[in-house]
Design goal:
heterotrimer, A alpha/beta (340), B alpha+beta (383), C alpha/beta (346), B: 383 residues, two-stranded antiparallel sheet, 13% strand, C: 346 residues, alpha/beta, four-stranded antiparallel β-sheet, 28% helix, 24% strand
C-alpha cells in the first residue's frame, strides 16, 4: 500500500501478561497493516491474542499485562484529503497509556465496539448521555449540540425512534439496539479506524445480519477502516477484505479474503476451514476436526507452536525451529516451515 | 468482555499449572491448599485458635491467678518480666520487681510503684492456686507464676485493678466470656438462619413470602431498646451468665435474618444450576438434591459468613457491656474490663486498664483475616 | 399428524404450552403471561435426530425442558415410547405429563439431557467419577465394582481416560467438561437425549470434535437426539429433520435437505439467508429483517411474524396460521405457504 492509503501499521507487537505463575505471551510478534477505508478481519480461537491486540492498539491492556515490544504506527490525518493530505505518523506504543495524547486518539480517531453491549454500556446513564460523553470529550460543542448530534447518530445507525431512545437506559433496549447504540457512540466523532471485537457474537443471526449490514453501509458512507475481530469464519468471509489468522499470540497467515478462503496455506487455516459445518453442503460425514487441544500458555511447545496438532508435521524440523512470517505468494504471508 | 479472552487464557494457564501440583484433589483439599498460601489468613487462624485455647479451654492454666484472687495491691502498675536487672546483670530466669507503697497526702491517693529492691523470680509450670481443669480434674498447675515458696511474691504482669486483681488473668477470663458466648450465639443464629433461608429458597412461593416478611419484621427491631426490655423481663433469680446467654440467643435469633436472606439467595441461585437440573432429570428426589448438591455448595459460604460475623458479636458484647447494658461485675468480660476506663482519672492514673482493647482488636483482626482467607479459598474457580 | 414412516415415532409432542405468569404489585397479581412456548407440536422418529432451531427467546430451550419435565408445562401432551413402563414388554406410548413420580423416575432412565454450559453443568465439589456415576447412584446402582466398570466404560466412550475418575471439573477444559456431561447422560442407556445447545459455548475446533463425538455415539448406542441450537449450520449437519421456532411457536418442520432447499416460511427463508457463509465469493444479497423480535409477553395479533414479514397481507394480521402439512412430512404455519416461492440455500 502506498503512503497515504496506509492507516495503521503494527510491527512485531508483543504484549505479555506478568502473572504470579509466570508470563503469558498473549501477543508475541504481530505484524499487519490496515489500509485507510479497508476492512481487516482477525480470526482466531480463544486464547489466540486477537482481543489483546485490539486492546494494545488503544493502550488499554488490563493489568498485569503490558505492551513490551514492537511498534504501532498510526498515520493520523491532520488536514486536507486525497493526495494533498498531511499525515503525522505516531507510534502508539511510545505514548503513555494514561496520557493526553492517546486519550485524544481514543474515541475520536480510533474507536472500539465490544462484544457484550450490556456490560460495555454503563447501566446508570442513559444511552444518550453516554454518546454525548464521547462527543463532549472530543469536540468543542455545548450540551445542546451534543445531544442533537447524538440523536443524529442514533438515527444513522437505524435506531427506531431516536429522539425517544436517546433517553433510554441500556436495560430497556434489546441486544440489537444496544449494539447499535454502541456503534453510534463509537462513530460519534468520525473515527478513521473502528475496532470491532466480536460485536455480533452475542446476537441472534438475524440481528447480526442487520448489524453487519449497518457496519458495511456506514463504512462506505464515512470512509473509515474497520478491524473486525471474531472467531466466526462466516462473518469474516462476509465483511473482510484482508484477513489475519492468529494462533497463540502469533500470526500464522495473512492474505486477502478470497485467497485465504480458497487457497489457505497454513495447516491451521486449512484445518479450521475444514472443521466448520457449511450450510448447504450437508454430508453425514464427520467434520475434519483439529486434533488435540490448544496447549496451555505456560507449557508452550518448542519450535512451531502448532506442531503437536499439525497434520503436516515434519519430525525434526517443526519441533526444533520456529517459523517466520514469509511472503509466500504476492500479498499472501504464512508462517510455516513448509515454506522456508 | 474484551478482557475476558485475555484473562481466560491466563486462567487456563494458571489452572493447568496448579494441576501439576494437585492432581485429583477434592474440593476441601483444594481449599486447604489455597488457604495455606495466604499468610495473613494463616496468621489469623493461628491467633484465633490460640485465643480460644488460651482463654476458652485452658484459662486457669494460662492465668497465674484465679478469677476471685484479690490482693492489697490495688491499681498497681504492670510488673514487666525482665531478664536484665537495673544493674545490667543478666539472669537466666525471668523475674519481676515488686511494689512499694506510696501515699500522696495532698491528693489522698495511695499508689504503688515498682520497687527494684524486691525481686521475684518467675517459674514455669509452677504450682499455684488450685482449680478444676475442664471442671473435672483437680489440679493446681499454672503456666507461670511466682511459685509457692515466697508467699509475698506476686507477678501482676499487666497491673491490677481497683480490687487488686491481676489484669492479665482477668483478661484471659474475660476472653473466655467474650469469645465463647459470642460464638455460641453465632452458631445458633447460623442454624436458625440456615434452616429458614434454605426452606425459603428451595420451596419458594407462599412459604418463601411468609418467611421473608417475618425476617423483615424481625430485622426492623431496634436492638438496644429490645435488649434493655428483655433484660428487665428475664427473671432476677437467674445468674448473670445465664441472663447473658439468654440475651445472646435471643438477639442472634432475631438477627439471623441477614444470614437467612443470604442462604436463601444462595439456594435460589443453586437451584437453577444445571448440575442440579441434571440430577433432577436423572430422577433425583428433592431430598437427594438438597443433601448432595445444595447443602455442600452452601457450606463454604456459610462458614465464611459466620466467621466474619463473630467479630461483630464480640464487638457487640464489648459495646453493650461498656455501656453498662450487657454484662456487669462480678462477671468479667472484655467489655466489663473496658468499662473501668470510662473516666479520665482512670486514664490518667491507671492507663494499663486500656490493654484489654488490644486483645479485642487482635481477635477482631484475626477473625477478619481468617474469614477473608476462607472466602478466597472456598471459591472453586477463583485464581 | 403422526406418520408411520420407516422408523417408529419415539416422541410426539402436541400443543405444548408454557406460559409464565407476570406478577405485579404487593399482592402479586397476575397481569399477563410470557408465552414462552405457545402450542408446539412435533415428533421425533427413532434414530432420526430432530434439530430444533430458533433465535434467543423463541422458546426452544423451554420446549426441551418441558419435554423432560424439568419445567412443568401449562398444557399439551408429550407422548414417549417407553420400554420400561410397558406392562407386556412391548414399548408403548405414555404421556409423560400424566405420570406419577415413581413412574416418572423410571422413565427418566430412558431420556437424558446434555446442557450448554460446561462450567455450570458439573458440580464443582464432585469428582468426575462421581458425576458420571450420579445417574446410577440415583437409581440405587451406584455401589460396587460394576458401577466403577461402567464409569470407566462411559469415560472411554467419550474419549477420556480412566485416571480422570479422580479428577475434578476445574482441571478440565471446556470441551472435556462437555464430554463429561455427555458421559453422564449415557449412564443409564437412554434412548432419547435432549441436547440443549451443547456446542454453543465451545471454540470452533472443539465444536467439530464434539459434534463428531455425538455422531459416533449416536451410531454406537442407537441414540436419538433432540438437538437444540441457534446455529443453522450445526443443525443442518447433525439433524435428519429440522423444526424452526419463532416466539414460542413452531413455524416450519421438514426434513433437513427439504427445509434448506425449499423453505416454505418467510422466517426460515430469512434465517437461512442471514447465516454468514464462509466463502467470500458467495456474498449474496441477504434478506435483512426489519424490526425486532416479537415480545413473547405481548405478541402481535394474528401471525406473530407479520410485522417483520415482507410478504405479509391483511389476513396475516388478523388470523393466526395453523401448522399444516404442505407436502409429505413438511409442515408450515403460514397462510401463504403454497403461493410463495422462497429462496433456500444457494
Amino acid at each position: 500500500m502506498n503512503g497515504n492509503s496506509l492507516l495503521l501499521e503494527v510491527k512485531d507487537l508483543k504484549t505479555h501478561f506478568f502473572l504470579r505463575e509466570g508470563i503469558v505471551r498473549a501477543v508475541d510478534g504481530a505484524n499487519f497493516e490496515i489500509g485507510r477505508g479497508r476492512t481487516l478481519g482477525i480470526i482466531g480461537e480463544s486464547g489466540c491474542g486477537k482481543s489483546v491486540t485490539a486492546l494494545s492498539i488503544l493502550r488499554i491492556v488490563p493489568y498485569p499485562g503490558r505492551v513490551v515490544g514492537g511498534e504501532i504506527l498510526f498515520h493520523r490525518m491532520l488536514q486536507g484529503n486525497g493526495s494533498s493530505a498531511v499525515t503525522q505518523v505516531m507510534d502508539l506504543t511510545a505514548l503513555d497509556p494514561a496520557g493526553d495524547e492517546i486519550r485524544s486518539i481514543r474515541g475520536a480517531e480510533i474507536a472500539m465496539v465490544f462484544q457484550e453491549p450490556m456490560s460495555s454500556l454503563t447501566p446508570v446513564y442513559t444511552v444518550g448521555d453516554q454518546i454525548m460523553e464521547a462527543i463532549l470529550l472530543h469536540q468543542k460543542v455545548n450540551r445542546v449540540e451534543a445531544r442533537e448530534r447524538a440523536i443524529e447518530m442514533l438515527d444513522r445507525v437505524g435506531m427506531p425512534k431516536p429522539s425517544q431512545t436517546v433517553d433510554s437506559y441500556p436495560h430497556q433496549l434489546s441486544g440489537g439496539m444496544r449494539q447499535r447504540a454502541m456503534i453510534a457512540m463509537a462513530l460519534s466523532c468520525n473515527p478513521s479506524l473502528l475496532i470491532a471485537d466480536e460485536p455480533t457474537t452475542a446476537l441472534d443471526v438475524t440481528t447480526e445480519a442487520q448489524i453487519l449490514e449497518l457496519m458495511g453501509d456506514l463504512q462506505h458512507e464515512l470512509g473509515m477502516a474497520i478491524m473486525y475481530i471474531t472467531h466466526n469464519l462466516g462473518v469474516i468471509a462476509e465483511m473482510a477484505e484482508d484477513v489475519v489468522v492468529m494462533y497463540l499470540g502469533k500470526i500464522v497467515e495473512r492474505a486477502d479474503v478470497v485467497s485465504l478462503f480458497h487457497d489457505p496455506l497454513h495447516p491451521y487455516t486449512q484445518a479450521l476451514l475444514k472443521s466448520i459445518p457449511k450450510i448447504g453442503r450437508r454430508s453425514r460425514q464427520r467434520l475434519a476436526s483439529i486434533e488435540g487441544m490448544v496447549p496451555d500458555p505456560y507449557l508452550l511447545p518448542e519450535g512451531c507452536l502448532f506442531h503437536p496438532r499439525c497434520p503436516e508435521y515434519m519430525e525434526g524440523v517443526c519441533d526444533q525451529q520456529e517459523p517466520r512470517l514469509l511472503e509466500v505468494k504476492k500479498g499472501h504471508w504464512a508462517s510455516c516451515l513448509l515454506f522456508s | 468482555m474484551m478482557a475476558a479472552e485475555s484473562s481466560r487464557a491466563a486462567d487456563d494457564a494458571a489452572r493447568s499449572l496448579r494441576n501439576e501440583a494437585q492432581r485429583g484433589q477434592s474440593y476441601w483439599q483444594l481449599v486447604w491448599w489455597k488457604f495455606r498460601r495466604n499468610r495473613l489468613a494463616v496468621a489469623g487462624a493461628v491467633v484465633v485458635v490460640s485465643f480460644y485455647l488460651v482463654c476458652g479451654v485452658f484459662a486457669e492454666f494460662f492465668a497465674p491467678y484465679l478469677l476471685m484472687h484479690t490482693s492489697e495491691y490495688a491499681q498497681a502498675p504492670p510488673q514487666m518480666p525482665r531478664l536484665i536487672d537495673v544493674e545490667g546483670r543478666f539472669h537466666p530466669r525471668p523475674f519481676v520487681y515488686g511494689y512499694e507503697k506510696r501515699v500522696d497526702r495532698e491528693a489522698f491517693r495511695r499508689s504503688f510503684v515498682i520497687d527494684t529492691s524486691k525481686r521475684y523470680p518467675l517459674y514455669f509450670l509452677t504450682r499455684g492456686e488450685p482449680y478444676k481443669l475442664f471442671g473435672l480434674f483437680n489440679t493446681d498447675f499454672h503456666l507461670f507464676g511466682t511459685g509457692i515458696h515466697n508467699a509475698e511474691a506476686h507477678c501482676f504482669i499487666l497491673g491490677t485493678d481497683k480490687l487488686g486483681r491481676d489484669l492479665f488473668s482477668r483478661i484471659i477470663y474475660g476472653g473466655r466470656i467474650s469469645l465463647l458466648v459470642g460464638l455460641t450465639g453465632e452458631i445458633l443464629g447460623l442454624i436458625a438462619g440456615g434452616i429458614l433461608g434454605g426452606f425459603s429458597g428451595y420451596l419458594g412461593g407462599l412459604v418463601d413470602m411468609i418467611i421473608q416478611r417475618l425476617i423483615e419484621f424481625m430485622m426492623a427491631f431496634p436492638t438496644i431498646p429490645l435488649w434493655m426490655a428483655l433484660a428487665c423481663a428475664i427473671p432476677p433469680q437467674w445468674s448473670p451468665i445465664a441472663v447473658w446467654f439468654a440475651l445472646t440467643v435471643i438477639i442472634s435469633l432475631i438477627g439471623c435474618g441477614g444470614l437467612a436472606r443470604q442462604v436463601r439467595g444462595l439456594v435460589l441461585s443453586l437451584r437453577e444450576r444445571e448440575f442440579v437440573l441434571a440430577a433432577i432429570s436423572a430422577g433425583a428426589s428433592n431430598w437427594y438434591v438438597t443433601t448432595r448438591h445444595l447443602l455442600p455448595n452452601t457450606l463454604s459460604h456459610l462458614i465464611v459468613i459466620s466467621t466474619l460475623a463473630v467479630p461483630a458479636m464480640i464487638l457487640g458484647e464489648t459495646s453493650l457491656s461498656f455501656l453498662g447494658l450487657g454484662l456487669r461485675p462480678p462477671i468479667t468480660s472484655w467489655g466489663v474490663l473496658l468499662k473501668e476506663t470510662q473516666n479520665v482519672l482512670a486514664l490518667r492514673y491507671t492507663p494499663w486498664f486500656i490493654i484489654p482493647a488490644v486483645f479485642i482488636v487482635l481477635s477482631v483482626l484475626a477473625f477478619n483475616f481468617l474469614g477473608d482467607g476462607l472466602r478466597d479459598a472456598t471459591d472453586p474457580y477463583a485464581r | 399428524m403422526a406418520q408411520a414412516g420407516q422408523n417408529e415415532i419415539l416422541l410426539e409432542v402436541k400443543e405444548l404450552k408454557k406460559h409464565f405468569p407476570i406478577q405485579r404489585g404487593l399482592l402479586r397479581r397476575v397481569v399477563g403471561y410470557v408465552r414462552a412456548v405457545d402450542g408446539v407440536s412435533l415428533y421425533i422418529k427413532e434414530g432420526e435426530p430432530l434439530g430444533l432451531v430458533g433465535e434467543s427467546g423463541c422458546g426452544k430451550t423451554t420446549t426441551g425442558r418441558c419435554i423432560i419435565r424439568l419445567i412443568e408445562p401449562t398444557a399439551g401432551t408429550v407422548h414417549f415410547r417407553s420400554r420400561l413402563l410397558s406392562s407386556d414388554g412391548e414399548p408403548q406410548m405414555v404421556n409423560l405429563l400424566e405420570l406419577g413420580s415413581e413412574e416418572m423416575k423410571m422413565v427418566r432412565r430412558e431420556i437424558a439431557i446434555v446442557f450448554q454450559d460446561p462450567i455450570g453443568s458439573l458440580n464443582p465439589r464432585m469428582s468426575v467419577g462421581d458425576i458420571v456415576k450420579e445417574p446410577l447412584t440415583i437409581h440405587g446402582q451406584g455401589k460396587g465394582p460394576e458401577a466403577e466398570e461402567r464409569v470407566v466404560q462411559l469415560l472411554g466412550a467419550v474419549g477420556l481416560r480412566p485416571e480422570h475418575i479422580r479428577r475434578y471439573p476445574h482441571e478440565f477444559s471446556g470441551g472435556q467438561r462437555q464430554r463429561i456431561g455427555i458421559a453422564r447422560a449415557l449412564a443409564l442407556n437412554p434412548r432419547l437425549i435432549v441436547c440443549d445447545e451443547p456446542v454453543s459455548a465451545l471454540d470452533v475446533s472443539i465444536q467439530a470434535q464434539t459434534l463428531n463425538l455425538l455422531q459416533d455415539l449416536q451410531e454406537e448406542f442407537h441414540l436419538t437426539y433432540l438437538f437444540i441450537a441457534h446455529d443453522l449450520s450445526v443443525i443442518e449437519h447433525i439433524s435428519d429433520r429440522v423444526a424452526v421456532m419463532y416466539v414460542g411457536k413452531l413455524v416450519e418442520m421438514a426434513e433437513t435437505e427439504e427445509l434448506f432447499m425449499n423453505p416454505s416460511h418467510p422466517y426460515t427463508e430469512a434465517l437461512i439467508s442471514a447465516v454468514p457463509k464462509p466463502d467470500p465469493l458467495l456474498r449474496s444479497e441477504r434478506i435483512v429483517l426489519a424490526g425486532e423480535v416479537a415480545d413473547p409477553a405481548n405478541p402481535p395479533s394474528g401471525c406473530y411474524f407479520h410485522p417483520r414479514c415482507k410478504y405479509a397481507q391483511e389476513r396475516c394480521k388478523i388470523e393466526e396460521p395453523a401448522l399444516r402439512e404442505v407436502s409429505p412430512e413438511h409442515f408450515v404455519s403460514c397462510h401463504l405457504a403454497e403461493e410463495l416461492q422462497l429462496r433456500g440455500v444457494v
